[in-house]
Amino acid sequence: MKELVVASKNLGKVGEIRAMVEPLGIEVASIAELAPKLEVEEDGESFAENAVKKAVFVSEALDRPALADDSGLEVDILSGRPGVRSARYGGDGLDDEARYQRLLTELFVVPPNRRVARFRCAMAYVEPEADPVLFHGTLEGRIASRPAGSYGFGYDPIFVPEGYDKTLAELTPDTKNSISHRAKALEAFLLWLEARNS
């Protein structure tokens, strides 16, 4: 494979995938670059359903191999919310900061030991005329009491990974890309690709 289309307009996601894939000689392009008017409604009930829908739609539209991920934050005490609605938590029109501030408000009286959470990622790869293949990654952690850090995007400023005392937004991009839910799913994809091509 020489080229891979990432079925996302989220520049943070695309950048993380590009950083891991391009050193392997695979050129990464996003739909923001190739087809900015292409829209896929993420109305699935699971991360996997949304990832497959996006990958299939983009692969068919552009007639190229496509990789899509759907990911989000699950907080145990909130029964898994925001979950599959992470990118739309609190309603349309909110930015990342407004979404994580809403979450912090909901957890205001929750003690640190009950702020257990995780990031989940489902990643789907599909080639034209082929069935999609799914890969998964999870990053366990907890929700901080206040935001910290300037790296990353989304809920990174309030998520402290297990084994760390800093938020994802305080960790360097290289560190995040070595432990994140997306990195784990992408690593599984790359191992599958290597085995298929060997």
Report on this structure:
By secondary structure, the chain is an alpha/beta fold. It has a single domain, classed as Maf protein (Alpha-Beta Complex), CATH 3.90.950.10. 33% of the residues lie in helices and 22% in strands. The protein contains six helices and six strands. The chain has helices spanning 11-21, 31-34, 47-62, 96-106, 173-179, 181-197, and strands at 3-6, 27-30, 66-75, 116-126, 133-143, 159-161. A six-stranded mixed sheet has the order 2-1-3-4-5-6. A hairpin with a 6-residue loop joins strand 4 (116-126) and strand 5 (133-143). Helix 1 (11-21) packs across helix 6 (181-197) and helix 5 packs across helix 6. The longest helix has 17 residues, at 181-197. The radius of gyration is 17 Å and the shape is globular. 38% of the residues are buried. The model has no long low-confidence stretch (mean pLDDT 92).
List keywords for this structure.
alpha/beta, 198 residues, 6 strands, globular, Maf protein, 22% strand
Measured by DSSP, the beta-strand proportion falls in 15-25%
Q: Using DSSP, what is the number of strands?
A: 6
Q: How do the strands line up in the largest sheet?
A: 2-1-3-4-5-6
Unreliable stretches covering 5 or more consecutive residues: none
* Portion in helices: 25-40%
Distance between the termini: 12 Å
Q: Helix-strand pattern, N to C?
A: EHEHHEHEEEHH
Number of continuous helical runs: 6
CATH topology category name: Maf protein
Output the CATH class name.
Answer: Alpha Beta
